[in-house]
Amino acid sequence: MNARTFLVSLAWLAVLPAAHAAAPVQEIQATLAKPAVMCGRFDQTKQLTGIKKPLQAQGRFCVLKGRGILWQTLQPFPSTLRITREAIVQIQDGRVAMKLDAQQEPVVKMINSVLFSLLAGDLSQLDTLFELDGSLREGHWQVALKARQPALAKAIGDISLAGASYVEKVDMKEASGDRTEIRFSAIKTGEGAMTADEGALFD
Amino acid sequence: MTKPARRQPRLLALAWLLAVLLVAGHNAWLWLGQRASPDTDILALLPGTGGRDAVRQQAFSHMVDAAQQKLVVLVGDRDWSRAQAGAQAYLTVLRAHSGLIAPISGDNAQWQNQWLDSLAGSRSLLLSEAQRAQLASGTPQAWSQRALSGLYGAFGGPRLGAWQDDPFGLFSDWVQERARETPVRPRDGQLFVERDGVNYALLLLELKAPAFSMQAQEQIVPLLAQARQAARSQASEVITGGVILHAAAASAQAGSESATIGAGSLLGILLLMWLSFRSLKPILYIALSIAVGCLGALSVSMLLFGKIHLLTLVFGASLIGIAQDYGIYFLCARLAAPATQDSTTLLRRLLPGLALMLLAALIGYLGMALTPFPGLQQMAVFSALGLVFAWLTVACWFPRLIGPHSLRASAQAQRFGRSIARWPDLLGGAAWHLVLPAAVALIGLAIAGITRLHSSDDLRALQNSPPALLQDQIRISQLLDMAAPVQFYLVRGASPEAVLRQEEALREKLQPLVQGKLISGVQAVSNWVPSQQRQQDNLTLLRRALLEPQAATPDAVTLAAQAIDESPQWAQALRQRMLDKAQPLTPAEFLATPAGTASRHLWLGQVEGQYASIVALRGLTDYRQLDRLAAVADGLPGVQWVDKVGDISSVLRQYRITMGWALLCAYAAIFALLALRYRRRAWRALAPPLLASLLTLGLFGWLGLPLQLFHVLAGLLVLGLGVDYGIFLLEASGHQRPHAWLTVGLSAASALLSFGLLALSHSPPLHAFGLTMLCGMLLVWLLAPLFTHPGRDPLLVQRAQPDKESA
Questions:
Q1: How far apart are the first and last CA of chain A?
Q2: What is the distance between the alpha carbons of residues B70 and B694, in angstroms, rounded to a whole number?
Q3: In this complex, is the C-beta atom of B117 within 8 Å of any C-beta atom belonging to chain A?
Q4: Which residue in chain A has the smallest CA separation from B116?
C-alpha cells in the first residue's frame, strides 16, 4: 500500500460540502503564516498492527503554494515523491518508479489540493471534507479532523493537526489500530528555503 | 352481345369481390389478430447465411438496448461547486416526475467499497500486462524495496485492504489501471469528469417509458428542456445525450412534415380531380384500386415470405404511383368514349394497352426479383402483387362502377387535353437542323454531368439529427471516452474459458493499435477476469518473482522482513496470506458483483449452444481506418469484426448497384415487349423516361449531389410511369389524343404531388427520392408528347385514323 492509493481513495471518497468552519478554526487559520515556499525536516513514526517495531523515517519536505509538494525520504532509504497538479511522481534511485498523470488519472489535481491543504494547514479547504474541532491556546493550536462521510472515515480514520505559525504535527489514527505520526521541524520560508537540488526537482 | 357474355363481367366482379373480402379478412387477422409487425433487421436484407446470425443479432440488441433507455447529462462549469449546484437543480426539476425518468441509483461511496471487496479474494490472480512484464524481469531486491517504500511511505496504511494483503502494491496498481478505463470519478458524492479546466457533474438517467414512444417523447423532451434551463441558471454548460432526443427530433420532424407535405399533396390531388371531373368520385375509385392493391400485396407477401420487411413497405409504397395509372387511364378513356359505348366494351378496347402497362411494370420488377438479395426479391414481389391486384380491381370493377354518364370532363380538363395540339413536332418537324444540335448539346451536357456523379452509401449521410444534438453526442463520447456502440469485436467459444482466452489473444493483437493511438483501449470482460489459464499463469509468475528464493538471493518477502526486523515466521505468514487471496474468479461470479455491473452488456453468455462476448473499443475517432481494426480479427478463430454502420452502408451500396443494373435490364426488356406491339415506334415510349432520367442524373452531377439507392428507386418509378405515358399516347387515335394527354397530365400531376413534394422533406432518403421524382416526372411529362407526335410519321398518321388498328 502506498501514498497514491491512500490519496486516490481519499479523493474518491470525497464528500458533500457542508457548513462553514467553527469560530476557533477561523482564529487558528489567522495564526497560520501562509508562505509561498516552505521547507523543513520531517520525522515520521508508523506503528502498524502485525509489525513489532515502529517504522521510522525522516527526510525533507517542501510545500510550494500553487505548485505542489516535494516529499523526500532520506532514511531508511532515499525516495522522492513529487505531487503537482499535473502528476504524482515517485523517484527512487534516480529513476521514475511510478508516475500518475493528471491526464490519465483526473483525481491527481484533487489529491494535490487536499494534501497541500493538509500540510499548509489550509483548514477552510479541508472543511469540505472533514468536520473540524479545534482549540487555540497562547498561539498554539490543535485541530481534530473527522471525515464527514462514514466510508471515508472508515478508510482513513481520524486525523489531528497541531502547530503554531506552521503545522508542526500530523497524527493519523485508523480503525485497524495503525498509527502514523509526522513531526515537522526546522521550517524555513521564503527565498533560500529550498535547496538548488530541490528546486531542480520542480523544474 | 350474347347473354353469357353479358353475365360474364358480373360474375367476374363478384368473384373479385370475394377475393378482395378474403384478402381484407386475412389482413385484419394478420395485423389485428396476430399483431404482426414488420421485420426491421437490416441484415436480413443481405444475401446468404451471413445475414442471419442469432449471436450477432443478440450482440447488437445487447449494445443498443443498453444505451436506448439511458440519458447522459453533463453539467459543467469552471467552478466545481457551480457545476454541482447546476446538477442538483437539474435533478430537482426531474424529481417530481420519477415515474417517467429517474437517476440511475447507486450510492457511490458504498459502491466503491463493495466492488473492491468483491475482487479482493482473487487479488493474487489479477495482473495487468505491465505487471506481468515487471514480475518477469524484476529482482527480489527491487521488489522488496518497493514493498518497503509502501510501508515507510508518507501516508501508507490499510486502504484497499491491509498492507499485508498487498505488500507490493500490485492490486492497487491493477485497480488503478481498471479505473483508467473511464475518466469518470466520484467526487463529493457525485460523478465527475474534467476537461480543459471545466468540471462536469455527470448525471445518468433512466427512462421509465420506451424511448420510441411518442407519448413518452412528448412528456420527457419539454421536461428535459425545463431541467436544462434550471441547471443553466447555476452552471455555464449543459450537454445532453440519449437516443430519445434523436427519436423525438425525428418524430417531430416527421410529424410536421407529414402534416405539411401530406396535407399539401392530398389537397393538390383533390383539387386536381375536382378541376378535371367536377367530382371527387374518380379519386375514390382510384383510391379503391390502390387500397385493394396494397391489401393484396401485403396478404400474399405474408403468405409467401412469412414476414415482411419494413423497407419493403417503404419502397412498396411507390407502387401506388404506378397503380393509379390504370384507374386514371380507364377514367379518361371513359370521358373520351362516346356515350353509346358501354363500359364493358370500352374496357375490352382498352385491354391491350392496359395489359401492356401491367406487363411492362412486371418486367421492370422481374429484374429486381432475379437479384440474389432477399430484400429486393421481397420488394419486387410485393410491388408486382400490388400492381396485379390494383389492375384486376380496375378490370373487374371499374366497368360496373362507372357507366357512360358517370363522369363529365370539366371545361378546364378539355382545354388541357386539347393543349397537346399546340405541342411542337420536334422530331418530324422541319426544324430538325435546330433541334439536332440542341439535343446533342443537351445530352452532351447531361453525360458530362453524369461523369461528375459520385455515389454515397454512407449510412451517416442518411441520418439528419439536428446538428446541435449530434454535437452534444460527440462531445459526450469524447468527455466520457465512451466505447463505440456499433463497431466492436464479437468473440465466440465453446465455453466461457475459451471466450476469455480468445479475448486475451485479441487484446494482445490490438496492442500495436493502442500504441499507435488508433484506439485508446478496449472494454472487455477479460480485462477484469483473466481466463483460468491466465489466472494460474499469473499466480505462478507472482510466486516465482516474489515468494520464492532466486539462486543465492532470498525471496522479496524475506528481504522485506529482514529490513524491518521481522521473523521468518512473519515472512511465512505474509507469503501465505498472499497465496490465500487466489480464489479462481469466473465471469459469472464477477458479473454478479457491483464491479461487474459496468461490464454486463459485454457478456452475451450462452447463445445457441455457444458462449459469446463483446470486446468494445474506446477512443475510436478515425473511422477511415476501420479496415485496420477489421484485419485484426483475421486469423483469430472465433473473433469477428462487427461494424453495423459499415454493414448497412454495404447493403445500401450493393442494392444501389444491383438495382441500377436491374433498371437497365428493365429498359431493355420493356423495349423488347413494346416492340412486339409498336414495332419501330417502340423507342418513342421509352425515350422520354430514359432521357428524363439521364437529364436528371446529369443535373445531380452538376449540382454535386451524390448518387444514392433512393435515386435509383425513383428512376425505376420514372421508367414505370414514363412507359405508361408512351403507351397512353401511342394507343390513342387522333381524336383520342386530347384525352390521352389528359390521362398523362393527371397521372404526372398526381405523381408530382404525391412523390415530387417529398423533395421538400428534411429526411435525406425522402428528399433524394422526391427530388428525382420531381425532376424526372416533370421532364417525362414535357418530353412524352414530343416523341409521340403524330406529325409526319407515316405510321403514327396511320394510327391517327380512328379505330384502324395496325396489326
A1: 28
A2: 47
A3: no
A4: A9
Shortest distance, CA A193 to any CA of chain B (angstroms):
21
Cβ burial A89-124 (10 Å sphere, 16+ → b, else e) = bbbbeeeebbebebeebbbbbbbbebbbbbbbbbbe
Q: Which residue of chain A is at minimal alpha-carbon distance from B108?
A: A13
Overall number of domains in chain A: 1
Among A35-39, A44-48, B158-162, the minimum mean pLDDT is found in B158-162
Distance CA B455, CA B705 (A): 8
Q: Collapse the DSSP code of B374 into the 3-class scheme (helix H, G, I; strand E, B; otherwise coil) and give the result.
A: helix
Mean of pLDDT values over A146-155 = 70
Number of alpha helices (DSSP H) and beta strands (DSSP E) in chain A = 6, 11
- In the Cβ-directed half-sphere of B575, how many Cα atoms lie within 13 Å? 23
Tell me how crowded residue B432 is: count the other CB atoms within 10 A of its CB. Answer: 12
Q: Is A95 on the interface with B (CB under 8 A)?
A: no
pLDDT at A79: 84
How far is Cα B508 from Cα B489, in angstroms, rounded to an integer? 14
Say how far apart CA B636 and CA B420 lie, in whole Å: 69
pLDDT for A3 beyond 50: no
Contact A6 B155 (CB under 8 A): yes
B110–A48 C-beta distance less than 8 A = no
Q: What gap in Å lies between CA B755 and CA B769, rounded to an integer? A: 8
Contact B455, B706 (CB under 8 A): yes
pLDDT along chain B (807 residues), means of 10: 62 91 90 74 58 69 72 91 92 88 66 69 88 87 84 58 79 83 78 87 86 79 92 92 82 72 78 84 87 90 84 70 86 86 88 90 79 79 91 92 82 85 69 78 89 79 75 86 82 94 93 88 91 93 86 86 86 88 90 81 87 89 84 90 80 85 90 88 90 93 87 86 88 82 88 84 80 93 83 48 40
Per the model's pLDDT, the better-predicted residue between B385 and A52 turns out to be B385
Range of the domain at A179: 3-202
Residues 6 or more apart from A56 whose CB is under 8 A from it? A43, A44, A45, A46, A75, A76
| Contact status of B439 with chain A (Cβ, < 8 Å) | no
User: Chain A partners of B185 at a C-beta cutoff of 8 Å?
Assistant: 11-12, 106-107
Look up residue B324 and give its three cell numbers: 393509379
d(CA B395, CA B358): 12
How far, in Å, CA of B419 to CA of B413, rounded?
A: 10
Look at residue B459 in the predicted model and tell me its pLDDT: 66
**pLDDT for residue B428:** 63
Exposed e or buried b per residue across B505-530, where buried means at least 16 C-beta atoms within 10 angstroms of its C-beta: bbbebbeebbeeebbebbbbbbbbbb
CB A58 within 8 A of CB A45: no
Residue B331, domain member (yes or no): yes
**Which residues span the domain enclosing B423?**
267-458+648-800
Give CA separation, B236 vs B84, B92, B423, B474, B524, in Å.
11, 18, 66, 19, 35
- CA nearest to A42, candidates B146, B153, B145: B153
Q: Which of A10, A32, A113, A30 is nearest to A66 (CA)?
A: A113
Residue A198: CATH number of its domain: 2.50.20.10
CA distances from B475 to B141, B248, B478 (A): 47, 20, 5
Strand B639-643 with B610-618, pairing: unpaired
User: How far is the CA of A153 from the CAs of A46, A150, B155, in angstroms?
Assistant: 19, 5, 15
Indicate whether B717 belongs to any domain: yes
* Alpha-carbon gap, residue B396 to B477, rounded angstroms: 60
For residue B168, the model assigns a pLDDT of 87
- What total number of domains does chain B contain? 1
Instruction: Return d(Cα B275, Cα B404) in angstroms, integer.
Output: 20
Helices and strands (H, E) in chain B, number of each type? 31, 11
Give A-chain residues touching B163 at CB under 8 angstroms: 1, 48
